[in-house]
Design a protein that fits this description.
- 2 copies of one chain form a homodimer.
- The first copy, chain A, is an alpha+beta fold.
- Helices cover about 55% and strands about 10% of the residues of chain A.
- Chain A has 11 helices and 4 strands, in the order βαβααααααααββαα.
- The first copy, chain A, has a 4-stranded mixed sheet with strand order 2-1-3-4, with helices on both faces.
- The first copy, chain A, is globular, with a radius of gyration of 17 Å.
- The two termini of chain A are about 20 Å apart.
- Chains A and B meet through α4 and β4 of A and α4 and β4 of B.
Chain lengths: ~210, ~210
């Protein structure tokens, strides 16, 4: 199992979200989808009140160009959003309001809305359309999304991320807790998961 | 030809320096070695007066771990320096004091001294020992290193880097000016150089 920690506003989380199941799956690994909020971490760790890609324009300029190349190599559409970063709080809460098995489809659709379709992902109608497309009742899911259970789960995710040393997104964790930052580290995280001690079942080690 | 822009204090420039000739060479491409000073860029672009890996400890902690994994995969020794970042000004000037053909060996040796041998690369005796090892006269090279020609060349490199949008090291440029940041983008830069328009000789295009 690979843990995939993502923030809906994060640009490189978009290609990561679109390919994590395929890359992990080819190695026989499942994916645990972990939405969290990066804003509080950026603020606490770096004093940032905006994306570092806005705070440092020369980095932002490169990021958009690099992202375009990454998406082109992956065959993913990319349209630079008018608003960046978008507010992903509602989408993150909706993710946790859904049953776990339904989350990956929703997450990928939100990333596509944000980075390929020019949609505003903090807009209820955008999220409702995605939910409807996958057979969910927006009314029921939105009600769950503001429940205390969901709010606490998302808050816990963000606090757990901070406690484990996360400072950006996407971040992957191998089963032994080894951390990998960035879409371009996904393959390395998978290799690590396949070779690290905890990834190998104890019985298999004893039997070999 | 791939341009390899590096700063001697930069951690990820170490594995990049050790492998850039091999990776580019396997694709039939030469390497232009371009030392520059990252400090002035960090300050002008981000207001930093120290490495971002020191300014944001959680990023620094991850970087050292990630660098260890990268070096392990490359079979490169790594010993975390007691002083980080080291002052690479003298080493950068010495690089430009050497004939171009002699620079790669010197650069690799300085990175090895900094990141594998625990040496202080701002120390004349460390640089002199490297020069002697490669058959140069430290006295003559050091005299050149403080010449106006060398000072101006290094200053120009740094200003050119800034003007071209460099904000970190290593940075690679393909022949058409496409920029790639980070050791982990070297392969992509090489692929780009092989497929971009300017990388294909004009005569070859006309003849095909």
């Amino acid at each position: 199992m690979i843990e995939f920690w993502f923030e809906f506003a994060s640009t490189y989380s978009y290609p990561a979200a679109m390919r994590v199941e395929r890359v992990a799956g080819e190695a026989g690994l499942g994916v645990a989808w972990k939405p969290f909020l990066l804003g509080p971490l950026f603020h606490a760790q770096q004093g940032l009140t905006d994306s570092p890609f806005n705070a440092v324009p020369v980095k932002g300029q490169y990021m958009w160009r690099d992202l375009a190349r990454v998406c082109a190599e992956e065959g993913l559409p990319l349209r630079r959003p008018d608003i960046f970063p978008q507010n992903g709080l509602k989408a993150a809460r909706v993710t946790h309001a859904l049953p776990e098995a339904a989350r990956p489809d929703f997450v990928r659709a939100v990333y596509t809305a944000n980075f390929a379709e020019g949609a505003t992902i903090s807009d209820d109608s955008v999220l409702a359309a995605i939910l409807t497309r996958f057979g969910h009742s927006p009314e029921l899911v939105f009600a769950q999304a503001v429940s205390n259970r969901v709010k606490v789960e998302l808050k816990n995710n963000t606090e757990t991320a901070a406690a484990r040393g996360v400072f950006g997104a996407p971040t992957f964790f191998a089963p032994d807790g080894e951390m990998f930052w960035g879409n371009d580290r996904l393959e390395q995280a998978v290799r690590w998961a396949l070779t690290s001690h905890q990834a190998t079942p104890k019985t298999k080690v004893d039997a070999s």
